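worker-3 :: picked RDD family protein
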Amino acid sequence: MTAVLSETGAAPDSVDLAESDRGTQEQPASWSARVAAFVVDVLVGLGVVTAFVLVAWSTAQRDWLWWLCVSAAAVVLLSIAVNRLLLPGVTGWSLGRALTGTAVVRRDGSPVGPWRLLVRDIAHLLDTLALFVGWLWPLWDRRGRTFADLLVRTEVRRRDDAPARAGRFALIAVCAAAVLAVAAAVLGYTVVYRNDFRAAAAREQIAVAGPKIVESILSYDPATLQADFDRAQSLVTDGYRPQLVAQQQSITAGTKKAPIVANDYWVTNSAVLSSTEHDATMLILMQGQRGVAPDMRTITATVKVNFQKSGDGQWQVAALTVLAKPKPGGGGR
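worker-3 :: C-alpha cells ->
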C-alpha cells in the first residue's frame, strides 16, 4: 500500500509530527520544571559551597583545612559556571535543563551564547530584590518569563530532544554534591567542632585548676617543708622543674641566717588569657601571709603563668613570671 504524498513530497503524518514537535518546543516551560532545573544546576552546588565556606570560616585562616575548603568551594563554583554557561554552548544543555526537558533560547528560538547566559544569571538579582516576585512572574506571564528574561530577551521553552543519558549524569552530579557536602560536615565536626569543644573544656578546667596549682607551688610550711617542695615539683613540667628547685634551695640555704617561716598564698582574682587543648596562659592576682603572729606580713603579687597538659592529662606549670613583686599589703586572709 503506497503512501499518499502532499505537494511537497512529504507524507501527511510526517508533516503533522513535525508541526507537533515545533509546537512543543515553542511552548513555555512549566514553572515546576524551571525550578527543578535551577535546583540541579545551581542550588545543589551552592549548598556544597556554603558547607565548605562555613567550615573555612570556623577554622584558622590559611591553615591546611582553610585552604582545602576554599579550594573545594572554588572548584564547585567553577563547575556550576561551566555547567550553567559553557555546557549549553557545547551540548545545547545544562544538566538540570536536560533532565527537565527545558532550554533557554532567544525570542526567535535560536541558541543563547555564554555571555548572554551570564548576563541573564546576573539579572536574576532583579528577580530576587523584587521580593522574589520576579521568580514567580512566569506563573502568569504568557510566555513564562522572569524579569531577567524580559531584560535580556530570552525565554525558557520545552524541549523533547534532551539526551537520553541526561538523567544519569544529573543523578551522578547530585550524588557527588551530596558526598562533598557530607565530607564538609564531617571535616567541620572532626577538625573544627571537636577541637573547639575540647579547647573550651580545657579552658574551663584550667580556669578552676590553675589558681589551685599556683597556690600549691608557692605555699609551704616549715613543719612539712620537704613534702610541700616535693608536691610543688610534681606540679611543674620537666623544663621548669630545675628553676623551681633552685628557688627552693635558696629558701633552705637561708636557714643559717634566719629560720624558715610559713608562706601561704591564695588567689584573689584570675583570668585565662589564652588556651588550647594542651596549653594555657593565665594572669593571676595573689595575696598571702608570710611568717607567724606577731611578725606576720600580708603580701600581694601578680604573676603570669604558662600551663601545659602532661601526657596523663594533668595541667602543670611550664613557666611563672612575676609581673608585680610581692609587696606589703593591708589586712589578713
